[in-house]
Design a protein that fits this description.
alpha+beta; elongated; five-stranded antiparallel sheet; 236 residues
């Protein structure tokens, strides 16, 4: 964003990026620069259709709805089954039991040290959902982790779920993904042949020139097929 502003004299009002760019640091950086950020983001709080979403989180989810509770990659109850109560700074599990703040934990993400808040349930022993909530080797209650970027992730996830957010992000598929797909699949450019940053820059400029010329020729051919006057094509 800073380089764009330096080169063009202004920064974008909005920016679209793929999932890999949706880091907490990037979300915070966009927020600081007042740039609306569109990137795929899974909400960590229960959404419509998730039985964990309920008016009173202290009440348990109906047993008939347990099979519909989302699972994570480990086949355990996902974080989106747990409701965060900001006023009390705690989480509620699908059984309505409280996960209270248990301390801080240090971690390294994207080369940066961050501090994570840990929330732990002390009532897992006799819970009927324990087998699908915790690891079989777990000796402590279920834990949920929260860092300082969680509110930004939730705001981004909500933005991406709106009709406007989906329509805005759909524009990226044509503007960014199509050229790269054509260059890789049709032109066969899947790796650089040269070494060194300047050599790679030169090679990439030739690739882009070839892509643009091919696109221009296809546009001219389409215009000719429609009978567009030659004078119009000459001005192009």
């Amino acid at each position: 964003m800073d380089r764009i502003e330096e080169n063009l004299g202004r920064k974008p009002e909005a920016f679209l990026a793929d999932t890999a760019h949706g880091t907490g640091e990037n979300l915070a950086g966009m927020e600081e620069r007042n740039v609306t950020f569109f990137t795929p983001m899974e909400p960590s709080q229960p959404q419509e259709g998730n039985p964990a979403r309920r008016d009173d989180p202290s009440q348990p989810v109906a047993e008939a709805d347990w099979p519909r509770l989302p699972r994570n990659a480990k086949k355990q109850l996902a974080k989106s089954c747990f409701i965060y109560a900001e006023g009390d700074d705690c989480y509620y599990c699908p059984q309505g039991r409280v996960l209270r703040y248990a301390g801080l934990q240090k971690d390294i993400r994207n080369g940066q040290a961050i501090t994570i808040r840990v929330y732990r349930c002390e009532h897992c022993e006799n819970c009927r959902l324990s087998t699908v909530c915790r690891s079989p080797k777990a000796r402590r209650g279920r834990m949920i982790y929260r860092d300082q970027y969680e509110p930004l992730r939730e705001a981004t996830a909500q933005r991406m779920q709106t009709a406007e957010g989906r329509a805005t992000y759909a524009r990226r598929m044509h503007g960014a993904e199509t050229p790269f797909a054509h260059i890789k699949a049709v032109m066969g450019v899947r790796q650089f042949l040269l070494r060194g940053l300047e050599n790679v820059r030169t090679e990439w400029r030739w690739v882009c020139t070839a892509f643009n010329l091919d696109k221009l020729l296809r546009a001219v051919a389409a215009m000719r097929a429609l009978g567009t006057p030659r004078a119009v094509m000459t001005r192009m």
